[in-house]
Structures are given as C-alpha cells and as structure tokens.
Amino acid sequence: MKGDTLILFARAPRLGTVKRRLAREVGEVAALRFHRGQLRRLARELGRDRRWRTLLAVTPDRARWPAGLPMTGQGRGDLGQRMARALARHRRAVLVGSDIPGLGRAEVAAAFRALGKAGAVFGPAEDGGYWLVGFGPRRPPDPFRGVRWSTEHALADTLANCRGHRVALLRRLRDVDGAADLPRGTMRRAAPARQGPPGGAPPR
Q: What does the radius of gyration of the chain's CA atoms come to, in whole angstroms?
C-alpha cells in the first residue's frame, strides 16, 4: 500500500456551521461536540497508520484546526467537484467523511486492498449515499457527473457513471444525519443543551 493517500474530507469545526440537521434536533453545541469528537478520533486513529498517508481537506479553505495532519482546502464547487479535485491529485486515493462512527482502520485498509483490482471502491451508506469513495489509476473519467447529492440516489447515480469500470463495494455503514443515527450514549457524553434553530452555512 506504499504511496496510498487517505483524504479526510470535513468542514472546519465551528459553532453553527456543522451538522445542521443534527443541530436542529440536539442543539448547536452538542452537534459541534459530536463533529469535533469524530474529527479528533479519525485524525488520531487513521492518521497514525503508516500503511497510508492521511490528509485533511477542509472547508472553508482558510480554516485552521490543530488536527496534527497535513491540511489542504477543498476549493470551490459542489460536493462532487470538490471531491473529484481532491482525489485527482493522487494516483491511488480513498476519501472519507467525518460523520461515520463505524469507520476505522479496517475499513480503510479494505478499500485500498480492493483498489488492487478495481478502478473504484465505495462504502455504501444506509441512506443511499456513501461514506467512502476511492479511485485507482484506472478510474472512471467523470464519476460525479449529475449526481443527486443528499438524496437516496447518490450512490446509484455515481455507480451509473462508473459503468465499464470494475467497482468494489465495502460493507454498509450508517452516517449521522440526525439524532436517531447517533450511537447509543453519544448525547450523554456530549451533554447537549437544547437551543433554537442554528444559523450559519449549509453542511459540507
């Protein structure tokens, strides 16, 4: 796996700008604590693995967060344009979000193994999206064209763009959109305070 790159794709942890749907249900402070805790866990667990190099791709571009990882900005464009740009910089790379409690080293290692034979790899999410995407040298030319983001069609649309290329699928995991998606006990640790509707920028 020498030369493999893992990209942790995340919004900078700022109050009122992260996990907007979750914040509506549990409050901005609790949503921020969840987001920050996930980023710290993933940076620590995944960033220490020497089987790959880990980068943190953040938005907004000038945000700074002491995650102990090399950082780069996501740049402009929709989610697909930003992900495509981040992945295109590397011969073999895997990109993950920051809101998947079940994500760990085993899942990343499985993705890079899959890229030994496949041109693309995806980690399906229970809501029809995906929690991981990765490409090797024989990647599809325009995998994110016309994808209906934030819908149950996101994975299906992307797979349609990958026709003619070998694709590998990992196990299905749940990402956290609302309070019902949180692992048991998470909100007790976060000690949420109920608040009014949050302001700020939209998620991702």
A: 16
Q: Indicate the burial class of 101 (C-beta count within 10 angstroms; 0-12, 13-18, 19 or more).
A: middle
- Statement: the pTM of the whole predicted model exceeds 0.90: no
The separation between the first and the last C-alpha atoms of the chain, rounded to the nearest angstrom, is: 29
- Which comes out higher in pLDDT, residue 84 or 37? 84
Contact at 8 Å (CB) between 134 and 126?
no
pLDDT of residue 197: 32
Distance CA 174, CA 172 (A): 7
Residue with tokens 């890079």: 112
Tens-digit pLDDT profile for residues 56-106? 999 988 887 766 899 999 999 999 999 999 999 999 999 999 888 889 999
The answer, yes or no, to whether the previous bond of 203 is cis (omega within 30 of 0) is no
Can you list the alpha helix ranges (DSSP code H) found in 14-143? Answer: 20-26, 28-47, 79-88, 105-114
166 has pLDDT over 60: yes
> What is the distance between the alpha carbons of residues 161 and 73, in angstroms, rounded to a whole number?
26
Cα torsion at 12, 15, 16, 20 (round to 10°)? 60
Element (H, E) at 190: helix 186-190
